[in-house]
Design goal:
0% strand; mainly alpha; 81% helix; globular
C-alpha cells in the first residue's frame, strides 16, 4: 500500500507541476504581493514539482525527493496564506477551500515525510 501511495504522490506532484504551465493565471492570483517575478516563480515551482515527483520514483533518489517536497511545501505556504487573505477580503465563496488548504499542507508534509527514509 505504501508503494501505491508513493506512485500516487509522484503523479500528484507531476500533474500539479504541469498545471503551473497550463494554468499559470490560477497561481498568479495567489502569489504573495511582496514577491517579485510572479510568472518566473510559478514556472520554477512547476519545474520543481515535476522534478521532485519524478525523483520520488527511483528508490535511490526517493528520500532526497521527499525532503525537497517538504521544503517546497514550506516555501509555498505563504501563497496559501495569501489565497486565504484574498478570499477573505473579497468575501469569496472559496474562502472555506482556502482555509482548508492550510492544514492540508501539514498532511502533505507528513505524507512526504513517510518517504524520507525509504
Amino acid at each position: 500500500m505504501k508503494l501505491v501511495l508513493l506512485y500516487f504522490m509522484a503523479a500528484f506532484y507531476i500533474a500539479a507541476g504541469v498545471n503551473h504551465f497550463v494554468n499559470p493565471k490560477m497561481y498568479q492570483d495567489i502569489m504573495p504581493r511582496y514577491l517579485p517575478y510572479h510568472l518566473p516563480l510559478i514556472y520554477v515551482s512547476g519545474v520543481c514539482e515535476i522534478l521532485f515527483g519524478v525523483l520520488l520514483i527511483p528508490e535511490a533518489t526517493r528520500s532526497v525527493a521527499a525532503w525537497l517536497i517538504i521544503a517546497l511545501l514550506v516555501a509555498v505556504f505563504p501563497a496559501n496564506v495569501e489565497m486565504m487573505i484574498t478570499a477573505w477580503e473579497r468575501k469569496s465563496s472559496i474562502l472555506w477551500i482556502a482555509v482548508l488548504r492550510l492544514p492540508l499542507q501539514l498532511v502533505l508534509i507528513w505524507w512526504a515525510w513517510l518517504y524520507t527514509e525509504s
